[in-house]
């Protein structure tokens, strides 16, 4: 396994000005991670090739692999012009990855902040042609560079394992796979172990995170909690300290034969560097002990 960190895990430190993305590269290497996933929040690369080149050189000098690039996207638009503009925007990010030598990209297919009426299976089916066509156009463009594009179980409309598989099978491209997030199923109240088993055969990269859970009838008073699709509550946790069954999750992954990138993603309330440091130790514990 290759243990990595998403730059999103350090967003608090980036937003506060304590770190920039080059500092992140150095820190991630010093902590003993094997690879870094780039999520361009708090910094931008697609319109700053000079910074992108600096980042590549620094990572190379430290022996840190750049494993993945993850960004928001939305293929559901009212006009063909807006749809094609979004496809071209995604292609510009593919060009960036080709320049940087990154071979794996994760993109959304719908907005993440959708109202409840747009989170249904009916909504997805009504717009499935756009979702599929957009994903195909981006995957086909990326294929010439040997880049794999992926959908993640993320965003309320396409977060359930069955919906992800529905899109995956309709897109039907060899270089279009799944970024499997072991915790995101809770956002739509799906049993994570069930979702993991369904998506593992299609996974080209795995996100590891943890959540605290509270039922709808016991709402928390404060903190970084958010509502699930069915009105329950979850909050990001340090890996191994929340309520996910990560021991069984690791067993399922090992039994599947997966032996690739494992990317730690922290989005909780605790100090982000401490949480990422502790998370790496627990991730290694899961797979090495």
TrEMBL record:
GO terms for molecular function: isomerase activity. Keywords: Isomerase. Pfam families: AP_endonuc_2 (PF01261). Residues 26-269 form the Xylose isomerase-like TIM barrel domain. This is Sugar phosphate isomerase. It comes from Halolactibacillus alkaliphilus.
